[in-house]
From TrEMBL:
Species this protein is from: Alkalibaculum bacchi
GO biological process: L-leucine biosynthetic process
Domain Pyruvate carboxyltransferase positions: 31-304
Keyword Signal: no
Family, per entry: Belongs to the alpha-IPM synthase/homocitrate synthase family. LeuA type 2 subfamily.
Record-given protein name: 2-isopropylmalate synthase
Gene: leuA
């Protein structure tokens, strides 16, 4: 690891780093959510979804409670164009759901985007152009002023095209590669776009600040969000949206700190699908809020179903240690953990407790459709009499006396040790039956 000298240590901190948000310990309310599964998520799949899968995914996102869903970049591919037409023509978009479409700042692309949107009731048209130093110098070969001109041109075109249509259109602007952009310049270009769109109480505009590539520690991103939140024009009529990617593994931290720092909306995907290391995982952000007693306003009551659906449609895999959703994230194999959970549950049963405080369980797994018998108490050579007794009681109704529990506990543990495998409840029962049940 000799080449570390070529990486920069700090990325465009705001001119006056402001960190009021660090004094807050909780997010007080659910943000607005926007699913970008069908766009950012889809564009990163080995095999992008076909039209039918997209329709199925869209319907599922609606069922999960998403009210804003980015459905694609309709000018970029025929499938995306046809998908949007299908949603509109087959009347598949509920009245309380707003679809979002992505566009670049080029007239023929904007024209095609509005063609694809014909007949839509509610839509957010999402304009982006890249603003970072690296993109300006290496890719676009444009000065700061030329990049502003490009963004402003797109903003004007969006306004002109939307005025000719009947639907209810709102606008979003993303300075793509925001985290690699000098903050004064990011502010300048966003304010120039806002001057064109003239946000008002009835015409709120979304400014989306992506960590297109995550390049700094999460508190730096949060300070950038706070700087924008404190300095943007028309602030009362602007919704600040964040769009963390996960290159440094900090997408959740960026989302939570970004919300503390003034953001009101989060764009992300189920389980963090998306470009490279992915977008922020909205399941985790939402359930982290839930674990703090805040209604996330998304329906994650049946996480196993969400996992199953996602894996089937995307061909991706939810890792076993994915927060809240992975197969092993509530599992207690070890005897001391099993014992503490059993005692915690017993204590809960015996006392009037308002909050959730059972040891080793961040939330009640049952709240998201997970089961104690199969997801929590799992038996292998590390397990204890408490866990084995729990399995026999929960699944087979044997409430064993302490001495017998201890005895069968040792027998089952030893069997798992010798076989070198986990024992499922029916296998525990078979061992129990052989030694203790007269048949
Ligand atoms: O990551 C990103 O910057 C994007 C933009 C198009 C918002 O996906
Ligand atoms: Zn993105």
């Amino acid at each position: 690891m000799k080449n570390y000298g070529k990486y920069s240590k700090s990325y465009f901190m705001p001119p006056v780093p402001s960190t009021n948000w660090v004094h807050k310990s909780h997010i007080e309310d659910a943000p607005l959510w926007c699913s970008v599964d069908l766009r950012d998520g889809n564009q990163a799949l080995v095999i992008p979804m076909d039209l039918d899968k997209k329709v199925e995914f869209f319907t599922y996102l609606v069922h999960l409670g998403f009210k804003e869903i980015e459905v694609g970049f309709p000018a970029a591919s025929e499938t995306e164009y046809n998908f949007l037409r299908r949603l509109i023509e087959d009347d598949l978009i509920p009245d309380d759901v707003t679809i979002q479409v992505l566009t670049q700042s080029r007239e023929h692309i904007i024209k095609k985007t509005f063609e694809a949107l014909k007949g839509v009731k509610n839509a957010i048209v999402h304009l982006y152009n890249s603003t970072s130093l690296a993109q300006r110098e290496q890719v676009f070969k444009k000065s700061q002023d030329e990049i502003i001109e490009l963004g402003v041109l797109g903003a004007k075109l969006l306004k002109e095209y939307a005025e000719k249509e009947e639907g209810n259109f709102r606008f979003e602007y993303s300075p793509e590669s925001f985290t690699g952009t000098e903050m004064e310049f990011a502010l300048k270009i966003c304010n120039a776009i806002l001057d064109i769109w003239q946000p008002s109480k009835d015409n709120k505009v979304i400014i989306n600040l992506p960590s297109t590539v995550q390049v700094s520690m999460p508190h730096v991103y949060a300070s950038q969000i706070e700087y924008m939140s404190e300095n943007l024009k028309y602030r009362d009529h602007v919704i600040i949206s964040i769009h963390p990617h996960n290159d440094r593994g900090c997408a959740i931290a960026e989302a939570e700190m970004g919300l503390l720092a003034g953001a009101q909306r989060v764009e992300g995907t189920l389980f963090g699908n998306g470009e490279r290391t992915g977008n922020v995982d909205l399941v985790t952000v939402a359930l982290n809020l839930f674990s703090h007693g805040i209604d996330p306003k998304l329906n994650f009551e049946n996480i196993p179903d969400v996992v199953h659906f996602y894996e089937r449609i995307t061909g991706m895999f939810v890792p076993p240690r994915q927060p809240y959703s992975g197969e092993l994230v509530f599992a207690a194999f070890s005897g001391s953990h099993q014992d503490a959970i059993a005692k915690g549950m017993q204590y809960r049963g015996d006392h009037q407790i308002t909050g959730w405080s059972v040891p080793y369980l961040p939330i009640d797994p049952q709240d998201i459709g997970r089961e104690y018998g199969s997801d929590v108490i799992r038996i292998n050579s590390q397990s204890g009499k408490g866990g084995i007794g729990f399995i026999l009681n929960e699944n087979y109704g044997f409430d064993l006396p302490p001495k017998m529990r201890e005895d069968i506990g040792y027998t089952v543990k030893n069997a798992s040790d010798h076989l070198n495998k986990e024992l499922k409840p029916n296998e525990v029962y078979e061992i129990f039956k052989k030694d203790y049940v007269n048949v």
